[in-house]
Design goal:
Oligomer: single chain
Order of helices and strands: HEHEEEEEHEEEEHHEEEEEE
Distance between the termini: 65 Å
Shape: globular
Radius of gyration: 22 Å
Number of domains: 2
Number of helices: 5
Strand content: 25-35%
Largest sheet: 6 strands, mixed
Strand order of the largest sheet: 5-6-2-3-9-10
Length: 284
């Protein structure tokens, strides 16, 4: 019986191994088929992303494409398929290694060299588009993800760590209206003696600005630059967890996105939004 099982596993692997100058091993043939279909529907692009993630104890992968640019901070490996570059990476601890195995000799990092790497330029990043996300039910079974797949058992509603009821409401509202981001962050800054806080979302965390993190109804919230905060009754810094609690996620220094929401901290109970056309916007 054991021999039969081993033969079945080997057969599954071999079914998904193609040798047309793009030899690679995909444990699930269905994943290979999904990649083929996605490339056929987006034929005019040069780079395709295959991103794996674990969210709310559920496994997903997302397909995206880009005309001729990439960000090397988000590359675990890459291979050729149908004359296209497939970049793959994991947001956190995921099933990637159970679904996708690329032999070392088939990795094609050199092929990326002729394209723009936004990690090495000052240019704005042209993010991948045409996202299509699948929920991984099992190694051999996927289906297109729906909004309900991303949902947590309960909405963000707790008040731990944040001492300001106003900031707490801002945080909970942000998490709930942005479909529970992978990482939500609070970034503090101070300009001419006035405290500010920016709230945003990310797939990685910035180790240089990291002050600690906490969970808000199972979601990860990272706190940056708390040392710049003068109004210390805003947040209970002693309740923050250290960096090793977020070790499943990648880290690198970030250029924070334009999509942040920014606020002026007038007092613990008065926090005012700042419009993006305010001259302070780029300084905080």
């Amino acid at each position: 019986m054991k021999k039969i099982f081993i033969l079945l596993v080997i057969s599954t692997i071999l079914i998904a191994c193609y040798n047309n100058n793009n030899c690679f091993i995909v444990i699930s043939p269905e994943l290979d088929s999904i990649l083929d279909e996605y490339i056929d529907k987006n034929p005019d692009n040069k780079i395709y992303y295959l991103t794996f993630e674990n969210r709310c104890n559920k496994q997903f992968f997302t397909l995206q494409c880009s005309s001729d640019c990439y960000d090397s901070n988000f590359v675990d490996g890459c291979f050729m398929k149908k004359g296209k570059i497939i970049v793959f990476w994991s947001v956190n601890k995921s099933w990637k290694d159970s679904l996708l195995h690329i032999p070392q000799e088939e990795l094609c990092f050199d092929s990326l060299a002729k394209y723009t790497d936004f990690a090495k330029t000052e240019m704005d990043y042209d993010a991948p588009y045409n996202a299509l996300t699948y929920r991984i039910i099992s190694v051999n079974e996927y289906r297109k993800a729906t909004d309900s797949d991303w949902s947590y058992p309960e909405s963000a509603r707790d008040s731990n760590v944040i001492c300001s009821s106003v900031l707490n409401d801002i945080l909970n509202n942000y998490i709930n209206t942005n479909n529970s981001p992978i990482i939500t962050y609070l970034r503090f800054s101070n300009l001419n003696g006035t405290d500010f806080v920016s709230i945003g979302q990310d797939y990685v965390y910035d180790p240089e600005a990291f002050s600690g993190m906490f969970y808000r109804n199972e979601r990860i919230v990272v706190v940056y630059s708390i040392d710049k905060l003068r109004n210390l009754d805003i947040i209970d810094k002693l309740s923050l967890l250290p960096i090793h609690t977020i070790c499943d996620y990648k880290s690198h220094k970030r250029k924070y996105p334009i999509g942040e929401k920014k606020y002026c901290i007038v007092s613990k109970n008065t926090i005012e939004p700042i419009s993006s056309d305010n001259k302070l916007w780029m300084d905080i």
